[in-house]
TrEMBL record:
Coiled coil: none
Identification of the protein by name: Dolichyl-phosphate-mannose-protein mannosyltransferase
Keywords: Membrane, Signal, Transmembrane, Transmembrane helix
Originating species: Hymenobacter actinosclerus
Membrane-crossing residue ranges in chain numbering: 119-140, 152-169, 175-195, 207-235, 247-268, 312-332, 344-361, 367-385, 392-412
Signal peptide: 1-17
Amino acid sequence: MSLIIGRLLRYSVLIVAATASFWFSPAPLTDDEYCGTYLHLSSFAGFTANCDGFEYMESARYPARLLQPRAVRQSRPLYVLLGSAVGYPLSWAVQGLRAGGVLPAAVVAKLPAKYRPLLGFYIGYVLLNFGVLLGALLLFRHLYYRLTAGRGQPLVLGALLVFMVSNQVTKAFFWTVHQQMFTFLVPLALLWLALQLRARPRWRAALPALAVAGGLLALLYGSFVLVLPVLLYGLWLLRREKTWLDLLSRALLLAGLFALPTLLWILLLHLRGVSYYNHEAEAYQQLVWLRGLWQQPLPAFLARAGANFARFAATLPAILPFLAAALVAGGALRQSAPAGRTELGGLLVLLTGFLAALGYYQARLTFMLVPLLLLVVALALALRLPDRRAGGLLLAAALSWHVWQMVSYGPFS
């Protein structure tokens, strides 16, 4: 127990220290460079409150907003309800601190007017960011030692964790209300699930229950939709025990159970006289542009697909150091077959295909590949460079990376 508590404390200090240092990064020069409000902590420190955050907080304050026509967060109701569950107790705590004089009114008065009644919800969502990122670090540690069969070095792990907490995603989104910390948790959770399905027969027996759980997670954050293909991989592992007809019927059952939570949510909205609205699909054409394959002439669809894939490729320079390191590491792994290599490689292909087909391309989304790319590097270092020099060099590179992130200009949203 003391080991777990110590680990939680160390990782918490790492997260807070790394992300708080971004307060002292260069401030935006113009309002056109970000979406939201730049909150000045002092004359030389501050951070951006993202423009999406206000809708998250208002929806958490009044969850009934989710039942209104074309509610922006209607496709992610569980995250809003989670914000309510955390935000209301914190709002009451803030009110108590203000009434007791512990939180001076002058401090609250410095906030933009629209944020003042939402301070508790703001704090709650930042704590959710912290919890999600902390969970990602803990899961990364587990996968690191699992994939390296216990041969990983703590120094290498520490260096890789620095890359996880210091990057353009945490810099722009940790201290604001947003869901971008799932960028790190989702790919690691998918890998962990794939490894569990391969190693634990009882997990394959629980595929229907996992499908329902995955469907609920998709109402928390959209990228959890990738749980379904991972579950279908678990079903494929049963191919020697089942007939192809049985596998097909089970696959259809899993797809139906996975869709069930969303269908029930849509039914609830329908009973309220509201049509389901998915803001990401409507505003950004996420994935729905693929319907053009059968809705328009093939040359026109191919032209659009080429343009979209080019836009996706334009986001890859943001992760180029990780991509290059993983490509070199992958070459070193070709002659070996460490446990989990198939699942790790398969998920990299799945995530890349998903991001390329998304239809909305931002570097922060492409960062979903980074946790898995870091694990490829970790695996190569454990198998090919087990001496301590590799850990020291990697840690020096990670700290240099963090300094660069801290002193560089942007991003702000």
